[in-house]
Known about the structure:
- The chain has helices at residues 15-25, 44-51, 67-80, 97-102, 123-129, 165-188, and strands at residues 4-10, 31-38, 56-58, 85-88, 107-111, 134-141, 151-158, 192-195, 198-201.
- By secondary structure, the chain is α/β, with parallel strands linked by helices.
- The longest helix is centred in the last third of the chain and has 24 residues, at 165-188.
- It has a single domain (4-201), classed as Formyl transferase, N-terminal domain (Rossmann fold, 3-Layer(aba) Sandwich), CATH 3.40.50.170.
- The strands form two sheets. A seven-stranded mixed beta sheet has the order 3-2-1-4-5-6-7, with helices on both faces. It has a two-stranded antiparallel ribbon with strand order 8-9.
- The chain starts with a strand and ends in a 10-residue tail after the last strand.
- The chain contains six helices and nine strands, in the order βαβαβαβαβαββαββ.
- The radius of gyration is 17 Å and the shape is globular.
- β8 (192-195) and β9 (198-201) form a beta hairpin.
Amino acid sequence: MSKMVLGVLASGRGSNLQAILDAIDAGRLSAKIGVVISDNPDANVIKRSIEWDVPVVCIERKQYESKEAWETAIADELNVHQAELVVLAGFMRILSPYFVNRLSGRVMNIHPSLLPAFPGRNAQEQAVNHAVKVSGCTVHFIDEGMDSGPIILQEAVPLEEGDTPETLAERILHVEHVLYPRAIGLYCEGRLKVEGRRVTILEKGEGTHEN
């Protein structure tokens, strides 16, 4: 069976993209990256994509008169490359309901907290400031809210004495690099069943489009 095509949206250094590429290269993830789209022409993720011979396109917000026109350009580019699942990997723009609804159920994100705790930006700083004992990361489908979509996978990361937002972020990132490819793999195998807010992980072999 053909491998599922991923479209990756990223704005920064591309460490989660690298984790996905490594998982594909090692045979842990049966997928291929059809295109990487960045809104930032200076993003390191563009360099990573070129090094791995992955098609990469920069679509800057300032090039378009409206947010909807910009998002239409992104969605059209994803369609050109036949992306079946859209993966947000450090994409620093909030996507509108228009985009979410156009690609309903096919956009995945990873967030550096145990949602619904600490949504939005600076989640690690929020965790440190609240002096919680445990934080972590969450892979979820996006919906029209802020980090409020159906949760796929979560993993906890304890806060340690003396943690700063930076040290916590680094430890969470190591977990993200394992969790995100795992969640993408479950989708590729058709093992994610979404009913309202609940995501059920089906047993292997139950999937609707297993590779």
